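Intended use. Records like the one below are meant for learning the mapping from a protein sequence to its folded structure. Do not use them to infer anything beyond what is encoded.
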Amino acid sequence: MEGLVSIVTPTFNSEKYISETINSVQNQTYTNWEMIIVDDCSSDETTKIVSQIAEIDSRIKLITLTVNSGPAKARNAGIERVSGKYMTFLDADDIWFPEFLKKSIDTIKTTDIHFVFSSYRRADEDLQFVYSDFIVPQKVTYTDILKTNSISCLTAFIDIEKLGKKRMPDIFKRQDMGLWLKYLKEIPFAYGIQEPLAVYRIRKNSLSRNKSKLLKYQWQFYREVEKINVVKSLYYMFHWMYRGFIKYRN
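Structure written out for the chain above:
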């Protein structure tokens, strides 16, 4: 069988969705995986649910943080534990279709591109497909991601045996984008699978849906994380705002 896939899943008060998310991993046609679930001090039944499932399925590993630290530190704690050939991410309320892992690996083998990602379906909290599918471009470069982040955290799939294990920047938002850019500084592009292979659950009052709240985080990202000058940051910000409007208009 092809190499081990390490899946990093941060959780915080995810009792409503975490069983569905884990089940979508257990239903994968590709079975050589480990799921590293990092709980960020949940106050609900999340850790109890995960522990019960992990007792039955040894591929699921639970890490509990002692201090609430936010998504970047939780994901990085998971990355530290990754031991596979491949690394991928799945948030605690999202879902993969059964062929996600297999088709991601097959795409790396056929294209010889070691960073791939896929399209996904968009659903509300009850998994009703009330939004249009998000179809990704076939290729994205470093500059493309600065204009709009087409790589969702739930479909990014990286051959870390070839590209190395990197960590996310320790920032409140856009830490996934920061990780993608670290890889894209070293490779020409990431390859997009245009078939939807996952379900992104859009929850009410989601920060990613509230672009006005994200403006300051995006600006800080350009200026403080990527060290881009003011003029170029304004240029990228304009593209990000416009494409964000297009992405969520239906």
